[in-house]
Structure formats: structure tokens, C-alpha cells
Amino acid sequence: MGRPDDLVRAVEATLFAAEAPMTAEAIAEHLGGADVRGALAELAEHYAARGVQLVERGKRWHFQTAPDMAHLLRREREDVRRLSRAATEVLAIVAYHEPVSRAEIESIRGVQTAKGTLDVLMEAGWVRVAGRREVPGRPVIYATTPEFLAHFGLATRKDLPGIDELRAAGLLDPVEDALEAAMDAAGQADGNAA
Amino acid sequence: MGRPDDLVRAVEATLFAAEAPMTAEAIAEHLGGADVRGALAELAEHYAARGVQLVERGKRWHFQTAPDMAHLLRREREDVRRLSRAATEVLAIVAYHEPVSRAEIESIRGVQTAKGTLDVLMEAGWVRVAGRREVPGRPVIYATTPEFLAHFGLATRKDLPGIDELRAAGLLDPVEDALEAAMDAAGQADGNAA
Amino acid sequence: MTGELAIPSAALQGDEADWAGPAAAATDDSALYLELDGWEGPLDLLLDLARRQKVDLRRISILDLVDQYLVYIERAEALRLELAADYLVMAAWLAYLKSAMLLPREEQEDPSPEELALRLQLRLQRLAAMRDAAARLLGRDRLGRDVFARGAPEGLRVDRKHLWQCDMFALLQAYGQVKARTAPVVHMVRDRMVMTLDSALTRVSAMLGVSLDWMELRDFLPPHADPRLRRSALASSFVAALELARTGKADLRQEETFGPLHLRGVRA
Q1: Domain count, chain A
Q2: A102 & A136 share domain
């Protein structure tokens, strides 16, 4: 195997040394404005079969150990926080519905969301305030962060497990919309609900 | 390039994720007692040509940036800034009158001189502290540096034009003219700053 | 029924380790209490009950579900367990829904019980979908648990440095201005040729005494004088003419605005 070219080596060294994932733009800026897309693709391919891999998460790149090495590397003291069930559900709702207001989260879960739940997710760096919805009351809306994508190994939100099926089944639509559609259908197939 | 064998991949992942360099024995123990010497040698060879290298230091192994890429770890970004009018005056006074104390600079300028102005000149490498004057209070005195001479293309300070030459060049013209020039200069400085 | 009650809701999820939900419990009544404590509200309990019907949520029997829920609540009340108000509200609503669904069609109100049942079903589907999604999300290879970033990254440092710029001209100009600003200032007024008001007055009165006719003001000016002296002489002679007219020693005449000014002596 030949020596990779110096730009590839520079991108490799930069991402190995970086303390946080970097966008292609940030890498390029660090390297004096070079176009690094080709180098990133070459590196990702080179590392695909190795014990360490180059991955893109939410437009940011980082090296991480290969998933099949997990059993060897799990540490005694996990540095991943254990989420409560409520926090996990809220996280999923934010991820699959973003941007989403607290009221919308609560209408899906059927319970009030404890004050601390969203805070925990924001403290973990996975959820952020994404502005306000321009409706009466201007509620705050929430969305996920690039750190969320990095932590759960998602290149983009399109990689959320099953999101296409959920959307196709209308399960990401509000109940009211689904109700309207279902009532029309139920007109013909009466009595199924009982 | 084929997929490296799983022991090589495991050693690669272990060293990548390690928070400190590891001995071969520690890696072997981590991986359930496998003989990792061959894997380490193979990895060291694989990484020799890359932007990151696997090195052994005092019997401990770790990844580090390739020596020729080390400059990427600590980069200096230089932004060009024009010296302010006040700093230019102070620099000129130091050059013509060195060594001078801050009080002397102020009496020549006829205005108070901010502490930061001399700091800027020292940061630029043009002015240095040249000791203390042996008078009551022992004030710090300042002088120019060899870098000052180099930057302004002077062989020695004696090459600075004398007062008569400045007058002949119109640089001692009455204050009104000078003021106008100063206003122009200030206008440009503002433009630069923006 | 009792046997089914013990199915912990967490067991329905993929990744049990991540749930802080109710633990697997025995089938006795204390387990019921623990589970009620673990459910997050009536919708959560309903979803758990619905899943025990082991059919697709779209084909769930709402009537069965209502019965199961009401049984659950009755048992809890029989054991004198404290139930949160929203469980009781849900129980009342479901009892109403059940009676409405059993009523003959023509006596039904709006919204119809079918619509209410469908709404409940849709809500349960949505909650179930998100619960499954959460489980699948937690089951992914997670950074810091299954995959790891570099343990000891060197870090990238960028040191900002100012590159100061100044040229020789700016330096000398600055020094020149310091010197010019602080040098002792001497004001020099250049010597200029002027005709004072006094001399103009003397000159104009003397000339008026000689002539009897109107004379133009211009004729009073010294001939062949330096242009700057002539300007000064014109100004002072004009003022002198006004002064002589004021004191009754001369008459003034001007044919048109900005036209030539004529004056003539007044004989006493």
C-alpha cells in the first residue's frame, strides 16, 4: 500500500487530534482552505474495515472504534448516563417530530413532562431550544443537536430507525389529522372499533 | 487492501480509545490474554506512512500525530492590524528619544499614554523594557529593538531623519495641516477597522 | 388476568438496561402497587394493557381494553391504594365511553363513541410508536458505550497573533506631528499695505475742496497703486465718503444699485 497523499494525511492527523467532531469546513479552515471532501471520502473508505472508523454525524466527522469491538472496550464505569424512561421517550419524540413544543410532547405521552426531563436532555447536549412557534403563546420548540446524532451513530435524522415507515403510516402526524382520515375510512367499515 | 484480522483490529481500537499509553502486557490482558506483539508490529508498519503513527515509547504504545504533521496541532493565525495613531506616535518618540520613561513620553506627546499602547508595541516586538532610570521612583525606561530597525529598514537609529529633514519634508507643518492629515488618517483607520 | 398483570412494561422494550421503569415483579398485590407506581399516567397503563391483547394496535378491542382498565382500577381501590386523580378521571371517561358504545346508535351524541374510541386508539398507536422508536434508538451503537472516540486526543490549538503594521512614513509623520503639536507657537502677521480710515478721510476731504463737480469714488483712489493697496483704499475711501455725508460735508449720489458712487463737496 502506498503512502496516502499529504492532504489525506493532514486530514487524518487533524481528526485524530481533534477533541470534538469537525465539519468539513472547519477542517478545511484549519488546513488553510484546502478542499477536503475527497480526502474525507478516501479516509472513510480506508478505515471502513479497520478497528477504528471515520464517520460523519450531522455533517461533522470523527474517528471512533468499530461497533463490533464494543464487547472488548466497554469500560467498568460507563460514561453514558442512564436515562429515565420518561427522558428516553421525550428524546424519541423530539427526534422524530422536531421541532416540537412541550405541549405536543405531552399530548403524545398523555402526561405532563416533569420540569427536569427536558433539562436532562439539554444538559446531555442532545436537545436544544430551536426557537418559538409562531402561534398564540409563542411556545418554545425543541430539536436535537449534532451531538445527539453523534451519540446515537446517526449520519442525519433520516437515519432514525424506522422514521420512513412511521411517516408513511401517518404515526408522526397529529391525532386530529389521523382522526379525520380514519373517520372517512371508518364510514365504510363501520363497527370495527368496537 | 484486505480487512485486517480481528486481533489487529482489537489492538487498534484499544489503543485508539485508551486514555494513556499502554504496555503490550496491558493490551494483552485487556484482550483476554492474546499475544499482541505481532498485531502491534503490523499496526506500526501500517501506520508508518500515514498522518497518525503507532509508536512505542518506554515499552508503552500509543498513537500520535506524524512528526511532519505536528504543526497542525498548534497553529498560529495571524491577522494584520494597522498600528493606531497613538501607538505610532509613542513608537516614534521611543525611537527618537530612547531610552525614555512613560512620563517622558507623555510630556513629549502632551497627552496621557495608555498602558496598553506600550504593551501593543512590545507585543509587536518593536519596543522593549531597557531597564530603570536611576532617579526617584526608578521608572521603567523603554527602547526600540533590532526588530524595529529591521521592520523599518534602518541600519541604525542614526538613519532616522533629523528634525531639519522632517521640516524640509513638510512633516513639521503647522498643526492645522497636520490635523487635517490626522483626520484623513483616522478616517482610513476607521475604514480598516470596519 | 392476575398472571398478566405482572408483565413489566419495560420488558416490551428492546433495551431493558436503559429503562428506569418498573422492575419485573411477582404476581401478588404488592406487585400491582409497584407497577401502578411505575406507570406514567393512565395512557401508559392503557398501552400496557392493550399490548397484552397481543394483537395489532389497529385491531385492538377498545371495549376489552376499557373492561381491563376498569378492573384494574377497581382492584386498586379494593386494596385501598392511593390512585392519582388522572387514573380515576380516565376510569370515569372510559366507563362513559363503554356505556355510549353499548347504547343503540340513534341515541348517540356527537362526537360519536366510535370517534372517541378511535381517538384513543390513535393516541395509543402514537405512544407505542414513540416507545418502540426510543427502544431502537437506545439499542444503537452509542458513542461512549459501544463505540469510543479517541481516548487522549492531542487537541487542536489555534493561537491568534496580531501582525502589527506600520510604515516609515506613518512613523515620521507621527513624530512630525508630535513635534509640531508641542513646539512653541509664534504667530507672524505679514506686513500689508493698507490705507487707514484717517488717511482716506484727509485725502477725500482735500480732493472735494478742489473740485466743484460730482466725482466718482474711484477717482479718489491713488493712481498706479498696488492692487492690494487699491482694494484697501477703496474700502477706506467708501467709509470716508459715508462719514463726510453724515457730517454734512458731502453729497452722495448713486444712479443704480451697484452703480458707480459719485460725491460732491458741500459749500459752506
Answers
A1: 2
A2: yes
Enter the pTM of the model.
0.64
Alpha helices in C79-167 (DSSP H): 85-102, 113-138
Tell me which of B52, B64, B71, B76 to substitute to probe the interface with A (most A C-beta atoms closer than 10 Å): B52
Is there a single domain that holds both residue B60 and residue B113?
A: no
Residue B64 and residue B89 in one domain: no
Q: Is B47 on the interface with C (CB under 8 A)?
A: no
Residues 6+ apart with CB under 8 A from A56: A40, A44, A155
Phi/psi of residue C138, nearest 5 degrees: -70, -20
Three-state DSSP state, B78:
strand
Mark whether A127 and A152 lie in a shared domain.
yes
**Count of H-run helices and E-run strands, chain A:** 10, 6
Cβ neighbours of B51 in A, within 8 Å = 4, 8-14, 16
Residue A123 belongs to a domain: yes
CB < 8 Å from C in window 143-162 of B: 151-153, 160-161
In this predicted model, what pLDDT tens digit does every residue of C208-245 receive, in sequence order? Answer: 877 778 888 888 888 777 888 888 888 888 998 888 88
| CATH code of residue A141 | 1.10.10.10
Buried b (16+ CB within 10 A) or exposed e, C80-105: eeeeeeebeebbeebeebbebbeeee
**Hey, is B162 helix, strand or coil?**
coil
Residue A179 is assigned to a structural domain of this protein = no
Any chains having at least 3 CB pairs less than 8 A from chain B are A, C
Q: Which of A70, A104, A121 is the last residue of a domain?
A: A70
ipTM of the complex: 0.70
Q: How far is C138 from chain B (nearest CA, A)?
A: 22
> Do B90 and B150 sit in the same domain of this protein?
yes
Nearest Cα residue to B14 out of B59, B50, B45, B60: B60
Task: For residue B28, give its domain range.
Answer: 4-70
d(CA B116, CA B99): 19
| Residues B115, B59 share a domain | no
